[in-house]
Design a protein that fits this description.
Layout: H1 2-7, E1 14-16, H2 22-25, E2 34-36, E3 49-53, H3 67-71, E4 74-79, E5 90-93, H4 99-109, H5 115-128, H6 139-150, H7 155-163, H8 168-179, E6 182-184, E7 189-193, H9 196-201, H10 214-217, E8 224-230, E9 234-241, H11 249-255, E10 258-259, E11 263-269, H12 273-287
Parallel strand pairs: 1-2, 3-4, 4-5, 7-8
Antiparallel strand pairs: 6-7, 8-9, 9-11, 10-11
Helix pairs in contact: 4-5, 4-6, 5-6, 5-7
């Protein structure tokens, strides 16, 4: 979006609280202006407004300090999560495979797509569809991919960095997670614990752990997968479902989070690992009320 706005003659700067993982940095154009860190100086920028992308609510917004200085401006809220709280002055919520898909169609309509912007948007579309393997891979999503390729997106490079380059330490972590996976409800629920100290010991950045939960979801017979991640001040739940028959957004909502039918997450403060497991099993029981083998 930043690349497209700049190409259209607008002043724009991106913000991420933490720098993007290396696989994404390599897919971003070198001249993409992105601010990172808890504290940023916005004085050099004469900003009229703020575009919040792919964020369901203000409480989940990746915003710098002081936040109020940023939020005093007009806010545009773009998201494909249908449980979005619809904050902001201009709101566009649509049912799409990815917010990147929404942006791609709109920017193409405005003739603002550049090869750099198209490659970045292709990355978002590929990520949210799991490389066009997830059930949200609609005909429209595939048409958008073709649109982005026509606009100059480097599809080969995106796929190479997203799926065919992985650190050895990440592979070791995957093996460890699988080794201590637990099952319940006749194997339909699989869950594992991901401890931050182990991630640190392997030299991995937390941002490099995307897709780890799909190891559990891909096990034959599993309908719901959960990754429990103990944090210093809370317990984090990452949830995935194989199909809409057993949605996970209700589980996430009950814990205090949100998301899609097939992908959701939540955090709960002051929760021990044993309590987190008990809560997960209790809430999963609402999704598997029969408790029978399949």
């Amino acid at each position: 979006l930043v690349q497209a706005l700049i190409a259209a003659g607008k002043q724009a700067v991106g913000y991420l609280q933490a720098p993007p993982p290396s696989r994404y940095r390599k897919l971003l154009a070198d001249d993409t202006p992105i601010l990172t860190g808890q504290q940023v100086d916005l004085s050099p920028y004469s900003l009229d407004g703020v575009v919040c992308v792919d964020t369901t609510g203000m409480d989940r917004l990746d915003a710098p300090c002081p936040v109020q200085e940023l939020l005093n401006r007009d806010i545009c809220n773009l998201d494909h999560h249908l449980d979005n709280h619809r904050f902001g002055n201009a709101v566009w919520i649509a049912e799409a495979a990815a917010t990147a898909q929404m942006l791609a169609v709109q920017l193409d309509h405005l003739n603002w797509l550049t090869p750099a912007a198209a490659t970045a948007l292709m990355t978002g579309l590929v990520m949210d569809t799991g490389g066009f393997r997830f059930p949200n891979t609609s005909a429209d999503a595939l048409r958008t991919a073709a649109l982005l390729m026509d606009a100059g997106a480097d599809f080969d490079r995106v796929m190479d960095h997203m799926f065919f380059r992985e650190k050895f330490a990440r592979r070791l972590l995957e093996a460890e997670v699988l080794k201590q996976t637990s099952f319940a409800y006749d194997g339909r629920l699989a869950y594992a614990v991901l401890r931050p100290e182990r991630v640190e010991a392997l030299g991995l950045d937390p941002a490099e752990l995307e897709g780890l939960i799909d190891l559990l979801r891909s096990i034959d017979g599993v309908e719901i997968a959960c990754l429990l991640q103990p944090q210093p001040d809370c317990m984090r739940f990452s949830l995935r479902a194989r199909s809409g028959r057993f949605p996970v957004n209700g589980i996430a909502h009950d814990i205090g989070g949100g998301g899609h039918l097939l992908a959701a997450g939540a955090k709960r403060a002051n929760l021990t690992l044993a309590e987190a497991e008990q809560l997960l099993l209790q809430l999963a029981g609402k999704v598997f009320p029969d408790h029978e083998s399949q």
